[in-house]
Amino acid sequence: MAKGKPLTELEVGSIVSSEIKASLGYIGSDITEQRQKSLEYYFGEPFGNEQEGRSQVVSTDVSDVIESILPTLLRTFAASDEIVKCEPVTAEDEEVAKQASDYLNYVFNKDNDGFITLYTLFKDALIQKNGVAKIYWDTSTKRERESYEKLSEDEYTMLLDEDGVEVKEHTEYDDESAVKERDKVLEEVAQLGQAVDPMMLDQLENAPIPMLHDVVIERIETFGKVKIEAIPPEEFLIERRAKSIQDANFVAHRTTVTRTQLIEAGFDHDKVYSLPSDTQDKYNEEKITRFRNLDYDYDSNAGEASTDEISIFECYIRIDEEGDGIAKLRKVTLAGTEGYTVLDNELCDSIPFVSVTPIIVPHRFYGRSVSEMTEDLQLIKSTVMRQLLDNMYLTNNNRVAVMDGQVNLDDLLTNRPGGVVRTKGSHGSADKSETIKLDEEFINGTILGGNKEKVDVDSISKENKLALTRTWGSVATGVEALRKLTIGEYQNVYAPMLELQRQMQEVSKSMKPMMEQQQKLRAKLNPLMEGKAFNTLNAYSQKVRASLNQKIEEASRKQTSGIMSLLNAKYQDRFPNLKGFKADGAKRMSLTGVGMNRIMTKHKLSNPVAIAKVYPKHQKDLNISGFINLRYLCEQMNVDAEEAFLYVCEGMTSNNTRWLKHKVIKELERGSLGIINLVDYYDDKNKQHRSSNKPKYSIKSLYSSAYYKDWCTEYDVKKMSYVDFTKKFKEFQTATKKYHAQYPKGLLG
User: What is the C-alpha to C-alpha distance for residues 703 and 131, in angstroms, rounded to an integer?
Assistant: First the structure.
């Protein structure tokens, strides 16, 4: 059989794009519609047959069933940390199998949050037929920007020799100290006059000046790990005839990424920026349903080209690209929507997807979901509930017949308890539905308070006459009827209230002489309170109090000075004003005299606690004079002694620089010679090399030595980067020089 021609990139793109459009899960397929419907039932969304003014309640049977099944599944698979277990084949494989099991469980549980992965995978399967997980090697790139100043030629060269270093900015200039040193030497030579060799003088004048470098670099670190993630069902595509993933001729992962992510993944910059930014997500009904209630915005990048989202199809297809008649599995990455662009094309060993389904259907990939088995039940229950509620509404709010023009329709339509419906026409006798409208003055004065056997009809208002006539036919009949109806209430309630009011008036009258006497006594005391005798007494009291406070303060100062003030539990009792001002909502003034108000005013802070956000960058704005002052500051920031010590410990150990400062550098003040020994070792090695005519013992040699490694272990500090070590070692040399100036070698060691 003759070999065919190899396929071009355009032909490969065309074949793959055809497979995409013909696959299950592509836009508009039956599977997509079924899964979208299942999502709508799970979220309890309306069915689309709702009517205005009728019940629109939706039962939650689908979500109830799924949420009841899910815990049982998770308990079965994720009850322990040993989700994966490798079985040995022979006795010699037991240890290897155990190690493999431990490693795989670590990768799944620790590196990839295995519980969330299983939770998402199972829920996708229960709702949307199949849950799909992707397992692949994820390569990530970390970029960090660093700045260096006044690097020598050697330091600059060593920095560039490090892996993953990319120079972003670079400035080169003469070493001013070297220039000054050369000029000084030339001046001294000039004083010698003719005794100087002209050639030597010329070499000295034209000697190259050492250069210094200011550089900004970007340190690029690439690392990778096994990635296991459950992908949304709408992002997974598979050929229609497939029975399983591994046997399928075409499988794809459809997703969206930004241009920046594509460039970081290693794709060509110009090709990436030539791709269209339109994505198919805005037309994916499944994804729209998933984010329907979250105001999902598909155009949120505001025109920023670097963050434009691009449709990416990571396809795994069996294709005869080489033209040898044998289809091989290839990974082809396409970008775009219609005119697909091939970004990558390479051979691969396997398809990195796995799938689970709750109800397997033989001989086909997609099974059945629990959601579609329950949807009819949710529809039936919702329909019955709606009809029951509608029937109750109509029963409780039944329709009435009214005579046109004889009733106020606005009153009739406003259905509220105790409401009044105004009608036209008169009635000869009281009606159950008739409302009697009489004013309070008429009821209290004429009906309840009237002592006359007969009522003066002329004294009754026109409105009350009309109400009495409509109800009882005449005014006199109405008055008598009301008296008979209310006389019992009057005797039980109204009459006792009148008696209580009368008694209170009598008590008020009896207290009047006492109030007048009190006013007279207050008038006599006011001049005395404002006179000299009171002021003198007040001044004496203040003097005695001031003397007493001074003595207390002197005694307290002796007992609460220095660091002991932080340990004195009764310190606050002797200073009751220590807490300062109370909070007014989110605002609170600081205690005066501790230095807080200055920094609060400068940075417009409304609460002393907010100083914690300002101080790290503006330490010069707050002067901490000692531990006594620190005690006040901590109290005002709501930090007690245990919390202060905890935060000190956390701050010291938060990074290697701080730990080195407190563990090694400052320990010099307490007799630790860690940095002195390190510098002395370096100096001794240099002397040995000079005496033996060996190359100079460099700082880099010290950095790579076993001595420095053992030194880090002894003093419990992490090994620094070489650049940081060179800078810090210069500080060590300066401190060692000062130490030896005070304690020369041979006297103390």
Answer: 53
